[in-house]
Amino acid sequence: MIKIVGLGAGDLNQLPYGIYKLLQSVDNVYLRTKEHPVVAELGLNYTSFDDVYEQFDTFAEVYDEITKTLLAASEQQEIIYAVPGHPLVAERVVQLLVRSDAEIEIIGGQSFLDAMFTTLKIDPIEGFSLHDATDFNPENLSLRQHTIFCQVYNGQMASNIKLPLLEILPAEYEVYLVTAAGAQMEIVKKVQLFELDFETELNNLTSVYLPPVPKDLLRHELSALRATLRELRGPNGCAWDQNQTHQSLGKNLLEETQELLEALAGDDDDHLVEELGDVLLQVMFHAQIGEEDGYFNIDDVIRTLNEKLIRRHPHVFGDLRANTPEEAHAIWLEMKKNEKS
Asked: 4 with 81: CB under 8 angstroms?
């Protein structure tokens, strides 16, 4: 048996009484990290995994090693594994233990998210997403809702957030650094995005809050372009745009394609971006008309294209191999021929 215990978000005042009694009744506790305020306050005898983080190059290796150690120890006796916050919030080792064959009991503590919502005075029902700064993928980001990044414990983790966001948002966009939310030592600091990794007082209780981003800063998103076209074609839109059909737009596509070819022959990236946008507009325009007619929309266009790319590249997404451009092209043509037949 492995009893997985949450130590709460901050100090002893946030620790449930039942968990307090349990921790006081045992001789030894395994801790993911001893760097948590309640550890010193409880006076625990513990085995911490902090040194494991120094032994490996990747977090995946760290988590695997901790999991193996806990599973081996649990074969001899019942053990307690204690983690910051709630065991089911941003704890990869807990997920690995749950998927193992071990007998698991999860005893929750207060999640740091509860304290974050209170400190920031936000309601997650308005839309909320949580991201791990150690493994942040900007493709999963939805900037229209409240966003919290956890595990921002040093400058490198802050950079993992800052650099992708600077590709989207102004350098002066304001975010919030929140340390020990809900605890007596709580610190909330507003900083500009470009300053994020300059902060020196980051620790394992630090999170970053990104407020919902205004629409005028999200015009790079496909959804924003769709909304613009819907408005142009809507009742209060543009009379010319409202009057277009698949057939009437045909000549526009030819003209825009010719202008794109001319831009490709030049050495002006800004011009190329503009002309690529004009060609994309033609695709989006046809998709909007298809959506209004009830036959297809841009999602169907993208899905069909993506499936075709995967299907025609079995040497990338399947078992075939192509060592030269000629071999790859031959496979493409063969897959295309099979589709047509």
From this structure: yes
- Report the alpha-carbon distance of residue 31 to residue 232 in Å, rounded: 58
Instruction: Supply the pLDDT for residue 210.
Output: 96
Angle at 100 (CA atoms; ends 24, 48), nearest 5 degrees: 40
Residue 70 CB neighbour total at 10 angstroms: 21
Residue appearing with tokens 């020990």: 180
Average pLDDT over residues 285-314: 96
Q: How many CA atoms lie within 13 A of 330 on its CB side?
A: 8
Domains defined for the chain, CATH in brackets: 2-109 (3.40.1010.10), 114-214 (3.30.950.10), 222-340 (1.10.287.1080)
pTM for the whole structure: 0.77
Residue by residue, DSSP assigns 32-89 as: S-S-SHHHHHHT--EEE-TTHHHH-SSHHHHHHHHHHHHHHHHTTS-EEEEESB-TTS
Length of the chain: 341
CB of 96 closer than 8 Å to CB of 63: yes
